[in-house]
Write a structure and sequence with these properties.
The protein is of the alpha/beta class and about 260 residues long. It has helices at about 5-20, 50-60, 75-85, 145-155, 165-175, 190-200, 225-245, 245-255, and strands at about 30-35, 65-70, 90, 100-105, 110-120, 135-140, 160-165, 180-185, 205-220. Strands 1, 2, 3, 4, 5, 6, 7, 8 and 9 form a 9-stranded mixed beta sheet that branches. Helix 2 crosses helix 7 and helix 2 runs antiparallel to helix 8.
């Protein structure tokens, strides 16, 4: 039986629309290059994996963008974005020198607090006010720290001693070459896990925690694609959060890090 002419026309229009909407087998998804940190496990690791990297990759994918992640020290990651030589860096946090230079994602990938570690067996510092002027604190080159940490350093006249990684600082602390070391941590990155990864379990301990700072993907305002790519990422991350996939990624990393590293 022949279909009515109007139905035939409607069917033809629907078929054409479906073909037009289907992704072309020959069209390639957009691919971009971004920088990620090499020593911020478990957020961003030397092999390009990590909680923050996984969230960034998934949000870009939802937005129709594939990413090539270039692993490097954070100080270099940050400078390439500031200079506009790389469109984005995972992860960055607000700092006065970045105003008008970096456009942060609308939502953070995570939020961290600062644990101050001390050697096991030395007098316990249960609060920041017990730190004496001249106390040498291990920090990381290029890292941003919460205002509370910077104010504590100013008020108590602390000495920041920067190194390439937090693990380096914890080993220096265990060896008696530092008085304390700052470790940025959140639900994915526990204090015990960090100590285990550095190989100093039982030799150092978390004394107190202060401050909080969000960690974003930072987009270069000096790069021609920076602002537009930031908007696409924001839309992708919103969809990722709404679907529950961001939380599932986080839970997978928390489950994987339930035991201290190195055990």
């Amino acid at each position: 039986m022949r279909l009515p002419r109007a139905v035939e026309r409607a069917s033809a229009i629907l078929a054409f629309a479906l073909v037009a909407a289907a992704p072309s087998r020959t069209s390639a998804r957009e691919t971009i290059d971004i920088a990620v940190e090499d020593a911020a496990a478990p957020w961003s690791q030397a092999d390009g994996t990590g909680y923050a990297n996984d969230v960034a990759r998934a949000a870009f994918a939802v937005a129709g963008v594939d990413v090539r992640m270039h692993v490097m020290p954070y100080a270099r990651c940050k400078q390439l974005v500031v200079k506009g030589e790389m469109v984005a860096c995972v992860t960055m946090s607000p700092a006065p020198e970045l105003v008008g230079v970096v456009r942060f994602s609308a939502r953070p990938l995570f939020e961290f607090a600062c644990d101050f570690f001390e050697r096991t067996g030395q007098p316990v510092h249960q609060k920041p006010e017990t730190l004496e002027p001249g106390t040498r604190i291990g920090t990381v080159l290029g890292y941003e720290y919460p205002p509370e940490v910077l104010e504590l350093a100013r008020r108590r006249k602390l000495i920041f001693d920067p190194a390439p990684t937090e693990e380096t600082n914890l080993r220096k602390l265990a060896a008696g070459r530092l008085d304390m070391a700052v470790v940025n941590r959140d639900a994915v990155k526990s204090a015990d896990w960090v100590a285990g990864r550095a190989g100093v379990t039982g030799k150092v301990r978390s004394a107190f925690r202060i401050g909080a700072l969000p960690g974003y993907i930072g987009f270069s305002l000096a790069h021609p694609s920076g602002p537009a790519l930031a908007r696409r990422f924001d839309a992708g991350l919103e969809r990722l959060i709404a679907s529950g996939e961001r939380d599932r990624i986080q839970q997978r990393w928390i489950a994987g890090n339930a035991r201290p590293a190195g055990t």
